[in-house]
Every structure is written in C-alpha cells, then in structure tokens.
Amino acid sequence: MLQFIYQTSLMPALDIIDRKAVTLLECPSKRQLYTVMGTSGIVYICFPDSKYCSCPAYNYSVLLKDDHIMCKHILAIKLSNAMNVTVRRNISDKEMRATLLHME
C-alpha cells in the first residue's frame, strides 16, 4: 500500500531511516525542528507541524508540479516517528537560532 501511494519516495525514505539520518532538534524554549541528512550529504530542515522541507525536490515536485504529496525527507520523518527510531538531540536556543538562520 505504501509503495502504491508514495511510489518513488518510499525506498529512498527507508534508506534515510536505515542511515539514522532523521534527527529531531529540541531547545529549552520548546522549539523543534527536524534535520534530515539527504543521500547527497546535504542536511535539510523540516518543520514538525507542517509538510515543509528545505530540499529542492519539495519546491519542485510538491509545490510547483504538484505531482508528489511530500518529499522523501518528510516521508522519512513520518516513518521514523511511527517506527520510534528518530534520533532526538537537545540544543541551546542559540544553536536553534543559528540552524534556522543557515537554512538552505
């Protein structure tokens, strides 16, 4: 069923999970965001309460062409959370601010 719905995104998302490349960053002010290390080594930023990802595929396939409902990074986050294998990391508010300022 998942393969039918997510077609080309499922296997790459599972690869991301296998590499333990999904991290939830949390800071004392209760802000949260996910970082996902893509297969190319680039770290993408994703927000927990939305389906937004900073990757080019999100902008092109999800927003522009509207032929995908989410990118492989968002799918990896959802599956990683469902499987309870998301890496959690506490960071300072200053580190969170710096991460957000350097989003791609």
UniProtKB/TrEMBL annotation:
Residues 34-82 form the SWIM-type domain. It holds the Pfam family SWIM. GO terms for biological process: double-strand break repair via homologous recombination. GO terms for molecular function: zinc ion binding. The keyword Metal-binding applies. InterPro entries: Znf_SWIM. Keywords: Metal-binding, Zinc, Zinc-finger. Signal peptide: none annotated. The keyword Zinc-finger applies. It comes from the Eukaryota. GO terms for cellular component: Shu complex. This is SWIM-type domain-containing protein. The lineage of its organism: Eukaryota, Metazoa, Spiralia, Lophotrochozoa, Mollusca.
